[in-house]
Amino acid sequence: MKKFFIVMAVLFGVLLLFFLIYNFLFKNNPLEGKVPNVAVIPNTSEVNTSKPESVADDQKIAAVTESEGLAPFFDAKDRALLYLVPDEKALKETFLATGLPKTVTTFPFVPRDIVWSPDGGKALVKKSDTEWALLTRQSAGTSSEPMVSVLKSGIESPTWTSLGDRIVYKYFDPETKKRTLNVANPDGSDWEVIGETPFQFLEMRPVPKSSTVAVWNRGNAFERTLLSILPIVGGEMKEIFSANYGADYLFAPSGARILVSDSIEKGSSNMSLALLNDQGGGYTNLFAPSFVGKAVWSKNSRFVYYALPGSIPAGSILPNDYYRKPILTADTFWKVDVETGEKSRIVDPNDIDQNYDAEDLVLDADEAILFFCNRHDGRIYRINL
Questions:
Q1: For the structural domain made of 71-198, what CATH number should be given?
Q2: Which candidate, 142, 83, 152, places its Cα nearest to that of 111?
């Protein structure tokens, strides 16, 4: 009997020890009932959580998009790059802080181009040469998608006024056969004719810090390009420059200087960047054989960042062959001081490991990053300056 009690006591002790160990390790878990401190994963239907493979902080040139991107625009308020992705019928943005793309909105059509208002609050989205839609972004802090409304048919080559409160566009009247220049509210209402043009293909841009727009016939190596200034409210259109061929123009943010790419010879294979004053005079050759479409002004209007094209076939007619035929260039990247003419590389040739044919150059708000579209693969890239 004594042995029995001893055995039972030992068994009881073992069971008691097992019970205490179980409660300590499992039932008294200090995390029980508490929310663990983990990161919240965003909705992957809105945010792509993967960066392009080639993005790296130590790379001089890196891809921003994984597929084709068009018409980049830097939003200084959100510190984000906005761009079109035609294959997805989408407008996307990539924030500098994260490098992650997010879909802003999608369209019921394939977007071909986009023209932003100066503050980025509105944009004109191209469906075809004569069909455009107005995109209106919602106020910051709201979750609503931008509103998109289709404008009346027949609008061509639209641009914004420098204040961004109205649009200016060309309209062809099929009955009268006249091409008129018109100003209207962003939705196309309250329009009025402010001029006429004989040109079927033209370009228009707002003149910064003014109530005028610049108008010129699209660059052609066999035609002189006529640059004119058109008042938005009253006044006649005034021609200010018509000396050279195949020209394109880009006004400095100050409005006091104009960057021009042109040729002094008809049907030439040579193009160069040059400067004009705001009256169309003071032509100064910068001796940089490039195109306006490969350049962007600094905010203080002192510097021009540009891509210098290489590998252009001998005998090419410029700019016609570049813009209208599949000529792709191998660019290097430069900056020129327009006051001194001094040029400097912004990318060492050793840091260029593939071919870039850059267009649509855009700077971020701090001028620390230069974005561009690469015609070789359609992707958008960034250069860390």
A1: 2.120.10.30
A2: 83
